[in-house]
Amino acid sequence: MKNDDISSVVRNDFLILQFSQCLYNKIGSDPTKFEYIKQKVRETGRLLLTLRTKYSIFNFEDAVKPNNFCKVVEAVKDLAAYDDKSQSYMTPSLALKLGHSLRKIGDIILCRAIATEDDGMTKAAERFKRLCTSEWIEHASHDALDSLSDTKFNKPSTIPFTRDVQLLHQHLEKKSADAFESLKSNESSQTYAELAKVTLAQVIIFNRCRAGEVSKMSLECFSKRDQAPLHDDKAVCLSPFEQNISKNFSRVEIMGKNKRKVAILLNPELVRAMKLLVDKRDACEVDRDNPFLFGIPKCSPTSFFRGQDYVWLFASLCGAQHPEYLRSTQLRKHVATVSQILNLEANELDQLANFLGLDIRVHRDYYRSTDATVDIAKISKLLLAMENGTLANYQGKSLDDIEMEDEIDLELDEEEISDEDDKESEPVRGVRDTKFRKIVRRHWSPNEVNAVMKHFKNHISKGHLATSAECARCKTAESTVLRERTIQNIRDFVRNRGLRLKNKCY
Length: 506
Hints:
Elements: H1 5-11, H2 14-27, H3 34-55, H4 60-63, H5 69-79, E1 82-83, E2 88-89, H6 92-115, H7 119-152, H8 162-185, H9 189-207, H10 211-215, H11 219-223, H12 232-235, H13 240-248, E3 250-255, E4 261-266, H14 268-279, H15 307-317, H16 328-338, H17 346-355, H18 360-367, H19 372-388, H20 404-409, H21 414-420, H22 446-462, H23 468-477, H24 487-505
Antiparallel strand pairs: 1-2, 3-4
Helix pairs in contact: 1-3, 2-3, 2-6, 3-5, 3-6, 5-7, 6-7, 8-9, 9-14, 9-15, 22-24, 23-24
């Protein structure tokens, strides 16, 4: 840690050092976790510094005594910028993190007391842990969780626009080509760093994966990438296009969150750039003991480029309209949300979630979150069908089979309905729109009427609506007669004939 008041507090407090040791024993085997350990330790150091300044509590052994519990709560609120009037935190996550750290420190004290058979310390530690369990929620974490929830509530959608993603890809392709040629012609730590940064950003964005996972990709993982030729038995199940992709793309498996295995796909250009990075490591002064593929030249053996920093950098430079949406998390949400359009089977959804390195429940609940557009476009169709009493017409069908415009167009004047079947279309009134659409009308010829009735007589007699797919098949079968009619014209005809017949019956 940098030499400041916080590091001085940390070095001179026994319990903070014990807390640090516990963290190191748990995750210290992974060099990439050192920053996390430092962050946790500095948080506890800041808390003790506040306790010293405000309440003259100079060490954690005194801080965790039951009679000082309220002072600890107030110090945490002070650090996390708690507002008494609104009962909310400026930095609620800090309050939650400190609560976890305090409970861990309580465990350390209790274990030490039991080991030394100190009954007084054991009872005090147990009382402190009981306070943390019961009172901490009421006094600190409840408001912190509410503050976090409020910031997310009604938060506008931040998934990126397709055009912005395309601009980012094009910008990275150009930068990659320039950096590749620069490194080939001029071996230096600067040209090496430029190619490493742009390649790292490309891998993250192409795979829609967590930036931190790709940043920590090891040389070993890359060298062990799947390069085996496509097996003949597997090729039978793939289309020619899929076979071609399988032959040209490489697959690297890296360690993801919660020790999950995450697959990274690499196109030939990415593989070529990464091979060059491996070949030029020694010449560009990357430490030989550095295990990371994206290691930083002239730095420690545990250093690597942080992918998120360079995704932000290139997003701001690519000319996107909303560069703030081009982040790894938003890109992951983008692919998960857009995948809803594809109507994936259960096994395909599992495959997508596994590729993103997610548990399927996390994929559904967080990444594949409900979008306002999806609610409006799909759920409203169900509500409209219920309102108009036509829900029975969709028995056994999914939400996608209910056409939203059908439900809206059902609200017509009687005069429009009686005149509808002889015209291409009619002035249609929306559910909450008082304006009419101006549409050129064209009479249906007897041959056209007969051609449609041949396919949809049963639909009309039962009052059922025709789907776009059914109308497309009708148009194909009667292409000679219906060549001047669109699929929507046919659907309108079936709908309006059914409505007219229904009105006659009633």
